[in-house]
Every structure is written in structure tokens, then in C-alpha cells.
């Protein structure tokens, strides 16, 4: 039933219950174009759906469905660079996170050596959703990028935990000719593996993932020492929209944590974090960690989604909002987070390797009666200013914002009381 509305669906459900649904003999075959579902417009709810517009509406296994709905771009390098002008990267796995990338691409195009384009879909729910539900849009944008930088290789990279995304990526890679060889690579299921230079390490097949010193960045010395551009699936899907004349300033935001159903929505940059949590049905909460695993802790969700607004509020721009429910203790949350950081950093630089360990110990000391606010602040300043990669630079944000937002709770823990009633204070947490 093409273009079924809500009443049509309700009638079909009733007919199914009554046993009066027409059988297969009554089936009507439609031609290919008519059978493609219309791209939905959900005004007033999810902002301007553009990047996610086809997720759930076009067949992610059928390149013709994408071709009918949008059409694969054959824009040449100059046209792609024109479309990319002013667009910014999205997510911490993007080498140009929140920064324009067109000029960097123009420089890569001029460099010698085999050049690679990497789609980094590791670890972010929005990127995994795009690979799983609209892989041809991601490949449309990435293959356009490959033409823009005159690339010789294109890699789709995702976590080994995102099996559906990897399977769809492999199917989509094999479904048509993109003008460049496409390889799908699974990386280990650890947060740091999304960092752009560690993504390159994983693609090269290195078992121990360590961030690379910079400069030079991957645009100079990337995969096997050759020029490489690394962006997220969101960035390439957004670029595909721009090439086809539809790239509103939107952000893909995933709401996770203490929610009934984890949700990914697309909202205008002028919209707020609160709009994203409302879409996920969040009413009551203690706080939210905005910006990924090491985002900023806040109780004020009335913050714009534009990177500038999130930066000003000391929150992260990764596009993930983790909700802490009403029964959660923010002091325990940051202690657990720094512990994860101390156990999963790559160990390459001292500020992060030792800093996360010392920060975790200082947070444990709070439970034993010592809240060394000044010492923690000094330590976090060193970590932020001297860590090699964003992993070590971001961890302090989670602690710093929690200390600012929940100063009373930190003091109370040092005095032997957990306001939320969930921590065993006066001993080891
Ligand atoms: S900041 Fe952390 S994850 Fe990044 S290089 Fe240093 S030790 Fe490794």
C-alpha cells in the first residue's frame, strides 16, 4: 500500500485481526519509482530532518532506492569543494570537529602519495544509525570527498560492537561502483578507538591503539604515512545533502543513559539540548552529561546545540546527551567516569595516563573525608593543556562541571553524607 496514512494502517490492523486482510493474490505490483517511500517531513517535532530524513524510509540494502529518492552525486572536485565551503565537521571522531574542512581538503588534493578518505562511525549512536539505515547517503558524501581530494582509497570504520552497521556498510560497499575502492574495517569496542589518529592505527591493523603526536595531522601523515582525511558519518551525510542542495544547519543528537528508550534525533542548531531530551520523553532527572562520555555535567538543558553555545556552557559537542536519572549521584558518576578513563586511556602521554589515575584517587579521597578542590583543579588544568589528544583533554571537563554544578554534594560526601542516598560514604566507594 503506497503512501499509507495512519487511517490506512489502522484499517489494515483491524483487517488482520478480523482475518479479512487481502491475500497475496490481491497484491498490486508497483513500479520502482512509485514503490520508493516518500521522504518524511516532521515539522514541529524533530526540527529540520535532513541528514536522518531517509532513515527508516529508504531501503538501506538497495542503492536504487537512494538513487530514486536523492540520486548519487557525480559532482566533480571543484563542485564538491564549493558545496563543502563553510561546512564543519561533526563529532570527536572527526579530525575537523566543529571546524570548516574545505580548505584542509584543498591542501590534501595538492599533496603527493596515495590518499585516503576515512568514514569514522566508531562509537557514536548517530553515526552507527546512519551506516545502518542510510549507508548510501554516507557513501555518496564520502565518495564525493574522495573526488575532491583525489583519493585512492575509501575506508568505512566502525566499532566491532556495531555489527548491524558493519554488515550494512559491507553490503553497501559491494552494491555499486563508487569510483574508488571501498574497504570496511572494524575497530575494537573501546571509546578511545574513535579518536581520529587511533582510527588510523586500527585501519592499519595495529593491535595496540595509541594516539599519534601532532603536528603533522592526518592530512599530511595519515594511513601508512600518506595524506588522509578523517570525518564522521554525520559529516559525510551532511555534505551529501549540501551537494544535493539540502544542508540546513542541523545537529544529530543521541539521548542515552537513564531513558526508557535511547533516541537519536536531528534538530536545528538553534534548538536546545532540552528539545532533544523532550523527544526522548525525559521529564525528571538529576543532571545530564552533554557531549559524550567525557562531556559536561549540567542541570540546565536550555542550551543551544550550536558548537559555540555548547562551548560557552562548558559542554561537549559530540552529539550525545547522557541522562542521569533522579536516583543518581553525580559524585559517584564522575568517579566512575574517571576510573574508566584511567583504565582505558592509551597510555601514550603522562598528563592523561597519570592524571586520570590521580584524579580517580582524589575522587576516592572525597569519600574518605578529603575534598581537595584546589589540587583537583590544578591537576585538571595540566591535563587539559598538555594531553596529546582529546581523550585526556576532555576528561577534566566532566569533573570540573560536576564540581561547579554540585559543589554542595562534593562537600557533603567529604562530611560523610550522600545527598542522593546512594553512596556508601566514609569508606571506599
Ligand atoms: S590523552 Fe590519553 S588517550 Fe590521548 S594520547 Fe594521551 S594517554 Fe593516550
Automatic annotation (TrEMBL):
<keyword id="KW-0411">Iron-sulfur</keyword>
<keyword id="KW-0408">Iron</keyword>
<dbReference type="GO" id="GO:0046872">
    <property type="term" value="F:metal ion binding"/>
</dbReference>
<comment type="similarity">
    <text>Belongs to the complex I 51 kDa subunit family.</text>
</comment>
<dbReference type="InterPro" id="IPR019575">
    <property type="entry name" value="Nuop51_4Fe4S-bd"/>
</dbReference>
<dbReference type="Pfam" id="PF10589">
    <property type="entry name" value="NADH_4Fe-4S"/>
</dbReference>
<keyword id="KW-0004">4Fe-4S</keyword>
<dbReference type="InterPro" id="IPR037207">
    <property type="entry name" value="Nuop51_4Fe4S-bd_sf"/>
</dbReference>
<dbReference type="InterPro" id="IPR011538">
    <property type="entry name" value="Nuo51_FMN-bd"/>
</dbReference>
<protein>
    <recommendedName>
        <fullName>NADH-ubiquinone oxidoreductase 51kDa subunit iron-sulphur binding domain-containing protein</fullName>
    </recommendedName>
</protein>
<keyword id="KW-0479">Metal-binding</keyword>
<feature type="domain" description="NADH-ubiquinone oxidoreductase 51kDa subunit iron-sulphur binding">
    <location>
        <begin position="331"/>
        <end position="376"/>
    </location>
</feature>
<dbReference type="GO" id="GO:0051539">
    <property type="term" value="F:4 iron, 4 sulfur cluster binding"/>
</dbReference>
<dbReference type="InterPro" id="IPR037225">
    <property type="entry name" value="Nuo51_FMN-bd_sf"/>
</dbReference>
<dbReference type="Pfam" id="PF01512">
    <property type="entry name" value="Complex1_51K"/>
</dbReference>
Amino acid at each position: 500500500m503506497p503512501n499509507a496514512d495512519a487511517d490506512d494502517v489502522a484499517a489494515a490492523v483491524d483487517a488482520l485481526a478480523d482475518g479479512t486482510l487481502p491475500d497475496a493474490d490481491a497484491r498490486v505490483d508497483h513500479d520502482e519509482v512509485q514503490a520508493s517511500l516518500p521522504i518524511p517531513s516532521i515539522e514541529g517535532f524533530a526540527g529540520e530532518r535532513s541528514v536522518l530524513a531517509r532513515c527508516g524510509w529508504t531501503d538501506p540494502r538497495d542503492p536504487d532506492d537512494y538513487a530514486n529518492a536523492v540520486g548519487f552525486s557525480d559532482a566533480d572536485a571543484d563542485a564538491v569543494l564549493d558545496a563543502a565551503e563553510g561546512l564543519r565537521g561533526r563529532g570527536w571522531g572527526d579530525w575537523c570537529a566543529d571546524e570548516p574542512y574545505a580548505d584542509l581538503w584543498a591542501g590534501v588534493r595538492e599533496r603527493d602519495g596515495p590518499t585516503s578518505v576515512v568514514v569514522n562511525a566508531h562509537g557514536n549512536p548517530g553515526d552507527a544509525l546512519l551506516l545502518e539505515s542510510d549507508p548510501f547517503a554516507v557513501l555518496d558524501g564520502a565518495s564525493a570527498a574522495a573526488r575532491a581530494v583525489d583519493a585512492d582509497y575509501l575506508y568505512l570504520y566502525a566499532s566491532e560492537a556495531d555489527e548491524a552497521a558493519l554488515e550494512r556498510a559491507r553490503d553497501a560497499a559491494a552494491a555499486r561502483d563508487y569510483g574508488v575502492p571501498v574497504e570496511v574495517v572494524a575497530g575494537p569496542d573501546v571509546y578511545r578507538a574513535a579518536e581520529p589518529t587511533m582510527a588510523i592505527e586500527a585501519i592499519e591493523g595495529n593491535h595496540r591503539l595509541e594516539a599519534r603526536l601532532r603536528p603533522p595531522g592526518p592530512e599530511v601523515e595519515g594511513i601508512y604515512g600518506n595524506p588522509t582525511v578523517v570525518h564522521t558519518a554525520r559529516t559525510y551525510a551532511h555534505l551529501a545533502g549540501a551537494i544535493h542542495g539540502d544542508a540546513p544547519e542541523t545537529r544529530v543528537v543521541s539521548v542515552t543513559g537513564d531513558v526508557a528508550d535511547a533516541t537519536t534525533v536531528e534538530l536545528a542548531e538553534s534548538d536546545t539540548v532540552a528539545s532533544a531530551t523532550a523527544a526522548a520523553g525525559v521529564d525528571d532527572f538529576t543532571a545530564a552529561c552533554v557531549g559524550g562520555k567525557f562531556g559536561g555535567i549540567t542541570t540546565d538543558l536550555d542550551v543551544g546545540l550550536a558548537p559555540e553555545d555548547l562551548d560557552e556552557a562548558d559542554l561537549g559537542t559530540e552529539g550525545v546527551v547522557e541522562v542521569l536519572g533522579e536516583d543518581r549521584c553525580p559524585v559517584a558518576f564522575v568517579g566512575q567516569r574517571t576510573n574508566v578513563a584511567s583504565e582505558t586511556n592509551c597510555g601514550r602521554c603522562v598528563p592523561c595516563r597519570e592524571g586520570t589515575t590521580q584524579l580517580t584517587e582524589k575522587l576516592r579521597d572525597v569519600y574518605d573525608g578529603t575534598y581537595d578542590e584546589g589540587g583537583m583543579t590544578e591537576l585538571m588544568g595540566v591535563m587539559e593543556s598538555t594531553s596529546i589528544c582529546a581523550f585526556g583533554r576532555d576528561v577534566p571537563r566532566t569533573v570540573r562541571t560536576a564540581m561547579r554544578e554540585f559543589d554542595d554534594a562534593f562537600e557533603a560526601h567529604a562530611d560523610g553524607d550522600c545527598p542522593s542516598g546512594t553512596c556508601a560514604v566514609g569508606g571506599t566507594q
